Amino acid sequence: MKNWFKSLLKALAGNEVTGAPSHTKIWASVACATATWKFIHIPEPSVDIWMAYLGLVGGYALGRRWIASKQSIEENKQESKE
């Protein structure tokens, strides 16, 4: 159980490479959790609310992966130059 919790905490708030806490990931996780909490407590969400919620959570996940892939490409370019 402890290993599962540690890996969850690292995924939500830590840097995968260094293992250090990442303030960016912490606040992004807080924002997604807050949006999810609020979305769950809306009695009958309209289409606009669904779109806003899915845009926030899905857009964040997609953007994060895109940035990570760009960083990986740049790191690979620099490694190949050396």
Distance between the termini: 43 Å
Secondary structure class reads: mainly alpha
Mean pLDDT: 78
The shape, in one word, is: flat
Largest sheet: none
The low-confidence runs, each spanning 5 or more residues with pLDDT under 50, are: none
What is the radius of gyration? 17 Å
Tell me the β content: under 5%
Beta strands, count: 0
Enumerate how many helices there are, as a single number.
3
What's the SSE pattern? HHH
Organism: Vitreoscilla stercoraria
Protein name: Holin
Description:
This is Holin. It comes from Vitreoscilla stercoraria. Helix content is 79%, strand content 0%. It is mainly alpha-helical and 82 residues long. α2 packs antiparallel against α3.
In terms of topology, how is this protein built?
Blueprint lengths: L1 H12 L9 H18 L6 H35 L1
Helix pairs in contact: 2-3
Protein name: Holin
Short description:
This is Holin. This protein is an all-alpha fold.
